Amino acid sequence: MKSVKLSLKMTTQVLCGAVMAVTLQTGAASSADEVNLYSARQPFLMAPLIKEFTAKSGIKVNMVYLKKGMLERLKAEGANSPADLILTTDIGNLNNHLNADVLQATKSSILEANIPDQYRHPEGKWYGLTTRARIIFAHKTRVKTGEVTSYEDLAAPHMKGRVCTRSGKNVYNVSLLASIIEAKGEAAAEAWAKGLKANLARKPQGNDRAQVKAVFNGECDVSLGNTYYMGLMETNTKKPEQKDWAASVNVIFPNQKDRGTHTNISGAAVTKSAKNKANAIKFIEFLTSNKAQKIYAEDNFEYPVKAGVALHPVVRNWGTFKADDLHLSNVAKQRTLATKIMDRVRYDN
Amino acid sequence: MTAAQATGNRVIGAMKVSLSWLNGWTIGTVFISMLALMPIAAVIFLSFTPTDDIWSHLTETVLPLYVSTTLMLMVGVGFGTLIIGVGTAWLVSMFRFPGKRIFEWALILPMAMPAYVIAYLYTDVLEYAGPVQGLLRDLFGWTTKRDYWFPEIRSLGGAISMMTLVLYPYVYLLSRAAFMEQSICVVDASRALGRGPYQSFFLVSFPLARPAIIIGVSLVLMETLNDFGTVDFFAVSTFTLGIYDVWLNMNNIAGAAQLATVLLIFVMVLVFAERYARRKKRYYHTTTTYKALPKYLLEGKMKAVAFVACALPIIFGFLFPAGILVGYSFIHYETAMNAEFLGNALNSFILSSVAAVLAVAIGVFMAYGVRLRNERLLKIMARLASLGYAVPGSVLAVGVMVTLGAIDNGIDGFMLDSFGISTGLLFSGTIAAVTFGYLVRFLALSFGSVEASLEKVTPHMDGASRSLGHGAFSTLRKVHLPLIRGSILTASMLVFVDCMKELPLTVILRPFNFNTLATFVHQYASDEQLGEASLAALSIVGFGILPVIVLSLAITKSRPGSRLGEQV
Hints:
Largest sheet of chain A: 9 strands, mixed
Structural class of chain B: mainly alpha
Oligomer: heterodimer
Low-confidence stretches of chain A: 1-11, 16-30
Order of helices and strands of chain A: HEHEHEHHEHEHHHEHHEEHHEHHH
Number of strands of chain A: 9
Strand content of chain A: 5-15%
CATH architecture of chain B: Orthogonal Bundle
CATH class of the largest domain in chain A: Alpha Beta
Number of domains of chain A: 2
């Protein structure tokens, strides 16, 4: 009997103490010197940028990192949402927010000057901050020069059993397929997906980095991946074996003779509910400044959207390339169809 | 009597019935069930919003595969955890063999390992590029993949193995608690009637423990159904993976909600089918004669078999993966070991403790409320309220957000209209929202284990206590709680450890600048950089273990009559 009483009492104490401790610790307010951010980009990536921004402007950045559910959270919170801006990757995500009407139009001469037309929404409802290209990693000796120069080559018969990719449902592969639908039509895109599936050396698995590891280990000869993964491997001092993986492959920018390499963006947008709209715009402006663009480029090996910002030497080393100039908004519209095609060709199974 | 009088009497009769509903336990149980049901209802509501038809596409393409893969996964994990969980629980509660005292608590340890973490670690070791296959290639001179066969870890079989390794403790815990709550008299009677220990197990102990074992396995199956991390990493096309695909790649939350609703209906059918199968059977402990279970001393070969059977799940489910994590954290310790680390750990610990205490208190309240009023509707409501466990975490989080958003904006609108004051968002994006999410999700754990345990207390106990003048609460406190203490501890431990590992609800519902160990791990693990997060992952396991060990010792002591037995 005694023990039960004791535990009841203890329970109450723990509860009261805990609730106080936790509420004191957090509590996001909206005051003049703050801006509230929902970010799909990882905290460790954003930390140096946020630190620099706060030091320069005196504006505190409150952040929640969430990938899935960001849009649903904004919708559920409605006009009372505390979020002032969002950061996310891939045009598909930006477009979904745009269509759900949770973003607002903004105007900033700084942003218009810093970001090329094709990387921002015409009414300023979203802004691209960095770009990344979806490229081919080809083994240095097992793949002959000229053997693979385009996405189409990956689906050609001579590559049978030699290709590794991550899941066909991954956002980057869906966007790539969407760009092919936009460029060549549904039937051609489905034929391509079918051909690529037929050429796979193994069931799709892992992330882009894991594919290069598989090439290094001889499971396959070529793989698909985003450019920054190459930079992350080439400079990985914690796991030096990744430098060997990177050293075993050549970087190939596909389709240089025709439409160019599929390039996607990461971007920011001001929410419709923003209470600190001016601060939110300031933050996006900061993210397109020379200094921030350089941090982005150096920390995650992405391409700055702003012209004239120096590339990381590792990135520069891969050479220049022609990017696919399809408008990204149009590519985004094909994403649902692309997902269905991946189902139809049973890409992952 | 006139017709009017008759009607009047009937009305009064009906009023009496409806008034008798108005006692605290019943109202409380109904209220809590409704509250817990709201996020689930929100998901179902979402599925009715107009949207593109996904069904014709899915049925023509991947739906049959989703269904068959999911069923195979459930069967595999179900049987795996049943055999390991019940087998080890039976061994440690009925027999004496070397290491038994350590196995008793160590068998719970794998529960602290998040399934996606163990999946990641085993992939590193067992994939083509990993050390095991590398060694085999060196030893036998194989050069390419085509030279030999090796099981593919990223497969359905791999997923079944990984989930079985970390989920069997649910079955172990619940069946051990059930074995320990069994009166020795039934085992004695069985032995006196000439049955050996093995026959007694299958004829007496196992059937008596059936409600608890079923709860354990159904918890495992619900965890299996809602898993995203492991099946995503292994690219095993389950129904849940399909839900996320429709939601995120086809940008169709309504379609995803439709799939989630189908999943819910499937779970409901399973739950009620099991209930129906044992509708007439009741499993009461008929006597109160408890003494320490006499442990049969195992000899020779059987001793070794028992030892190995208990050691293997601990080695593969805990020691080996934890060892790899320790190795990684030496390399990456400074990534995690910063000023935020302790704060994150504290957040995890406090949040999980609060949720565990609340979940168990609510679980006891509801289970007792259901017991007091043996009413069908009430039972069904309570059971529906524990369905949150079967919904994929991120989908449930959306349900919670929709619910809280509607409440917050409703209050705000009302206050604005009536008093011109905007209250903004009161619950959305707060710690309270995260805690509410945890409760909705883990009510099944606390309610399930408490209910299973209460079911075995014979109603004669209630009758005796009540006739001696004790009220409902006093009876609960003085009779039931001491009898089911072991299950209460088990329930709080289950909820605590699950909250420590919980990811999607925490990530999606949390306030600004709020991190737990799990969300810290997530930012790296989401890009397969578990090395960087290994110290935090290890801390989840570490913080999870402490209460596991403490509570496990308490559970051993909690067996009714255990102290009596020691004196004998």
